[in-house]
Amino acid sequence: MATEIWPTEIRLHKDKRTLSVRFDNDESFDFPAEFLRVTSPSAEVQGHGPDQKKTVSGKQDVEIMQVDPVGNYAVRLVFTDLHDTGYYTWNYFIENGRNFDAVWAAYLAELEDKGLSR
User: Fold this and answer.
1) Contact predicate 111/59, CB 8 Å
2) pLDDT at position 50, please?
3) Is 111 helix (H, G, I), strand (E, B) or coil?
4) In this predicted model, what pLDDT tens digit does every residue of 36-76 receive, in sequence order?
5) If exposure means fewest CB atoms within 10 Å of the residue's CB, which of 49, 61, 65, 94 is most exposed?
6) Average pLDDT over every residue of 101-110
């Protein structure tokens, strides 16, 4: 179960456009800042139910300014567009890392369907 997997390293790259997360089961994932911003676990993006989820566009150039620990279960990210809500849990990173291609493809298709751009 993902909750038993713990991060061993969380590293923001110098360009502030990639966050790397490595886990104690030897899985590691590199997350683009844009991906993390548009899939934010915040209520602002996810809403309070599946029918309230928002499509966030125009974040291709967003960067991560800050990574703050939240207890022993998550981090809070602060982006250059000043978005700073939502806790990125270890489960978030595991699930989105393992399913990155599908999540990203669904996001790009959603943008296209709505006539929005990255």
Assistant:
1) no
2) 74
3) helix
4) 999 999 888 887 877 888 999 999 999 999 999 999 999 99
5) 49
6) 97
The CA–CA distances, whole Å, from 6 to 86, 88, 91, 112 equal 19, 13, 9, 36
- Contact between residue 91 and residue 107 where contact means Cβ atoms under 8 Å apart: no
Specify burial of residue 40 (Cβ count, 10 A radius: 0-12, 13-18, 19+): buried
Q: Which two three-digit tokens encode residue 20? A: 């790397």
Domain covering 2-114: architecture:
2-Layer Sandwich (3.30)
Per-domain residue ranges of the chain: 2-114
Whole-angstrom CA distances from 80 to 33, 64, 88, 114 are 10, 6, 17, 25
Helices (H), the chain: 33-38, 43-46, 90-98, 100-114
Instruction: Count the neighbouring beta carbons within 10 Å of the beta carbon of residue 23.
Output: 18
